Amino acid sequence: VKLIVYSIKSDGGEIGAALDMSNYVFNLDPGIRTIAYVEDKAYSAAALFALSCDDLMMKPRSTIGDCQPIMMTSEGPQVIGEKIQTVLRERFRTYAEVNGYPTLLAQAMVTQEYEVWSLTDLEKNELVTLQRRDFEFLSEDQQKRYRKEKILSHAGELLTLNDKEAIDLGFSEATHDTPQDLLESLGYQEKVLVDAPSSSEGVIDFFDTYAPLFLMVALFCAYLEFKTPGLGIFGSLAAVSIAAY
């Protein structure tokens, strides 16, 4: 195997699994080139996984970023503490440094405190990114070297990039309409192996998606069963729904 392309369309997932998957890909044999192809979205843990690959390519109108770890509590979603966030920041920084992604942009995906500006370096005629505090630390003469273009992320926000922003800022290598276009651009036209999700994985995804609904139906049917005499259809539906859940 000389090339692996991971097609990504994900809102994210569980942190431990994401770290395991990302580290596995990051530590593959250096002779194997890995490419993350974002087909629609790569948010949260999926963004971490994308950066573990050697290169990033995106589909038009796709997005990547926003990797703040959260957990569900009785009071709703809550941000996970610094102990976990510092691990994610280290992984984002390491993946970016080794694989050649802009480190500041990678850090801004997981760190809210960064206010990141896009500027044009007038001497080199190229786009660069700086934290606002770093720009303001420059002397007045040094600041004149740059022209402000836009604020990529405000303080208190996490960075998210679309495909055009990612390629302009050197985060994405190319934009392709389909995975096949990507492969053909690299000279791969034959002997391409596609490992699509299996039917069993599709079934698991279905049950995972509708798990809350199964639980609600089970509780509702169990309530009706307790309110009616004997054993009836509501008890059977509750049992089936619990099994599905």
Give a verbal description of the structure:
This protein is 43% helix and 24% strand. Helix 1 packs parallel to helix 2 and helix 10 runs antiparallel to helix 11. The longest helix is centred in the middle third of the chain and has 18 residues. It is globular. 25% of the residues are buried.
Provide a brief overview of the structure.
Helices cover 43% and strands 24% of the residues.
Salient structural properties:
6-stranded mixed beta sheet, 24% strand, alpha/beta, globular, 3-stranded antiparallel beta sheet, 245 residues, 11 helices
* Outline: globular
Structural class computed from helices and strand pairing:
alpha/beta
Distance between the termini: 39 Å
Calculate Rg over CA atoms. 23 Å
Q: β content, as a range? A: 15-25%
Following the backbone from N to C, one meets helices and strands in this order, namely: EHEHEEEEHHEEHHEEHEHHHH
Sheet with the most strands? 6 strands, mixed
Which parts are unreliable, with pLDDT below 50 for 5 consecutive residues or more? Answer: none
- What is the tally of helical segments? 11
Q: Say how many strands there are.
A: 11
How much helicity do the residues have? 40-55%
Q: Report the average pLDDT across residues.
A: 88
